[in-house]
Every structure is written in structure tokens, then in C-alpha cells.
Amino acid sequence: MKVYDTEGKLLTSAAGGGSTDHLDDIGDVDVASPADGDGIYWNNANGNWEAKAFLPRAGGTLTGPLYIEYESYLSFGPRVASDSASVRGMLQFQRSRGSLASPSAVQSGDYLGDFVAQGHDGSSYQSGAVFGFFAEENWGTGPNRRGTKLVLQLWQAGTSGPIGDKFIFESAENFLPAHDNKGNCGNASHRWKLVRAVTVTSGDLGFEETSCRRCGEPFRVGDMLALTVVACPDPAGRDGASVRTVPVCRRCFLAGGGPG
Ligand SMILES: [Zn+2]
Predict the structure, then answer these.
(1) Which one of 69, 91, 190, 249 has the minimum C-beta count within 10 Å?
(2) Alpha-carbon separation of residue 219 from 151, 210, 226, 230, 231 (angstroms)
């Protein structure tokens, strides 16, 4: 049953005797002062239909921030889906110099777009991580240059910030720390199983072993060491098909034999 108020407007809240199922005429909605481009939405907090700027304005360009808010569920996100073998869902960031109406080429170092993760610090929302896309060179249509790099920015724990570049993925297939002589690849409890490289440089080649693999004696500063070849499983599971070298003390080396 439809229930109307004294002005003939459809009552939409259950408490008022109506139902949202019966909202079948846009003229039934009583919005105080809608603005151009506003959309009508149901505000569950106060049980009213209200107007809000959801839609693009001014020639299709959104002139204000577009918020997608969802507070009641543990997870929520936009879904960009495709069931096509050749068309994929995507989110696009577009950046130019000049103006939107008359764009010109981006230059080396220009931001192309960001994914930003923010958290509330008790006072306001702040950025904790940014995955940014940068022009790696001046773009141009002649030589068709479109070099791009990815930069991961993080707020470092235990510091007063600010958020800054931490890791760089260059288009030449380089993966770099953002600063020289900074950061580790793996640690004592999170080790990579296998690291392979054609060349390891620069500086001294060092080992973390603190004792001889054969006799167990601890190494001391100034000890001369030898490398002993041992078998190790290779990624294909052929035990013994690969080898690696481990340091042993000079006494065990002169005594000969394997690493024990
Ligand atoms: Zn030894």
C-alpha cells in the first residue's frame, strides 16, 4: 500500500508506513534543494531520500571529488570485470601537460598516476603507501618514446616521515632501492631460497658463516679460509645436480676431504 503525506508525496520510510519498493515515480521524492547533476540516494541513517553530487557535471567532467563510501562491510572495492578473451578490465590514469582540452606531452619525471593507501591516524586520513607511475623520459610521438617507471613510496615505521621513495622499478628491468647502500634483500628469518645472478658486485664478497662447516670451530678475525664444493638440490629437484661453495677453515682444507 502506498502512503502519502499531506502534500501528496510518497512516504518512503517503513516507519512512515511506506516502502522503498513503492518509489516508482521520481516526482514522489521530496528533495529540498537539489543541484544540477545531483543524484538521488537512500540515506539509511535518517531514513530519507536525499540528493547528492554523484554524477559528472559541466560537460562530462567531474568538478568535485567522487567518493565511494561503504562503512558497514569488512571489505569493499570497485570491480572492473570482463568476460572477453581480448578485452580486459582496467583502471586508467591519464596525465598530460598543457590542458585537458589541449594536452601536450609529459616530461621526464612527471607523475602519470598513483594508487594511494591511507589510514586514519586519530586526527585525519594520511597516506601510508603510494604506488606511483612516472614518465622516465620526455614522451614524444616521433621516436615513440613512452618510457615509464614504477615507484613504491612508503612511510617508514618508527620515523617521523615523510613518506618517500623506497623501491624503483625501471623500464630497463632494473629493480632498485631508492637510495644508495640502503635496504636488504631477505633477512635472517625471511631468506630467499635461491638467488642467482651472473655478476655480484660491488665491494667485498662476504659470507655470513661464523664457523667451519667441517670441524665446527668458530672463525676468528684474520683466519684464512678455503671454499669447499658441496652438492645442493637444484630447483628441478635433482639432488646433487647443482653445487655450491661453503667456507671451511684452513686446517680442514689442508687435511683434505669434504666438508663433513
Ligand atoms: Zn675446520
Answers:
(1) 69
(2) 41, 6, 12, 19, 23
